[in-house]
Structures are given as structure tokens and as C-alpha cells.
Amino acid sequence: MLRILRIPFAVMRAHAEAAYPNECVGAMLGKTGPDGKTVGLAMPLENSAEGSQHAFYQLSNDSLLAADMAARQMGMDMLGIYHSHPDADAYFSETDLKHSCPWYSFVVLSVKSGEYDHSNSWLPDFEQTRAEREELQIAE
Ligand SMILES: [Zn+2]
């Protein structure tokens, strides 16, 4: 189960809406406890995809590394990556699967006509052949 606290979720939502009609991407930092993973901080990152970003995002190794370092400095772990789907549902696409890492949670935020619609969290398997839906909770 992935729990996202209200403030980081508001940041993700605002980022997804601001990036519309492009895809946004960011890191989710937090802690893993006995009752699962809790995201305490969302860090918007740069979509470094060349050309159209309407249905594509790319993360540079530099920004991933920076997010990982920031997490450690704050005593947190990098728990996952979020990105948005402009005018599409929050499913996990073939492209998403191809660019996934099995040790992260992947939250997809659906933005329709510029407004946040819904979100899902996905857990890709090690072979990058499928992603299972993870229970997602927005909490205080
Ligand atoms: Zn996607």
C-alpha cells in the first residue's frame, strides 16, 4: 500500500495541472514503516523528453540522482516516481512499463481538460512485463 500525505499530494496535483497539456514527472520521497510506504514529500522534476511531451516523459539520471541524494539528506527514501497522463486515464502504458524500475511505486495522475481527474499507483514486476495496481491512499 502506498500512502501519500495531503501536502505532497497537493503538490503532485498542482504540478500535473500546471504541466498540462504536457506530462509532468517527479519523485516521491518518504519512509517505509511496518504499515507500508508513506510519501511525505513530492519533488517536481524536469521532463527532459525531446519534442512533444504530451504523451511522453523522460527523466535524466542527474535529476534522479539529485532526488535520491535529497531524500537521504532528509532521512527519507526515494519511494517512487509520479507522472501525469494529459487527457488519458491513469493506466500504466507499455512505454511506462519499459521505463520502469521494479523497486519503485509509479503513481499516474490523470488530467482531463487541464483538471486533475483521478490517480492510480502501479508496481512493475522485475521482468518489466506487467504492473500490478497498488492500493493508494491519500491521508492526513
Ligand atoms: Zn505514462
How would you explain this protein's 3D organization?
By secondary structure, the chain is of the alpha/beta class. The chain has one domain (2-139): Cytidine Deaminase, domain 2, CATH 3.40.140. It is 23% helix and 42% strand. It contains three helices and eight strands, in the order E-H-E-E-H-E-H-E-E-E-E. The chain has helices at residues 6-19, 61-73, 94-98, and strands at residues 2-5, 25-33, 36-45, 77-86, 105-112, 115-124, 131-134, 136-139. The protein has an eight-stranded mixed sheet. The longest helix is centred in the first third of the chain and has 14 residues, at 6-19. The radius of gyration is 14 Å and the shape is globular. Bound molecules: zinc ion.
Short description:
This protein has one domain (2-139): Cytidine Deaminase, domain 2, CATH 3.40.140. The chain is 23% helix and 42% strand. It has helices at 6-19, 61-73, 94-98; strands at residues 2-5, 25-33, 36-45, 77-86, 105-112, 115-124, 131-134, 136-139.
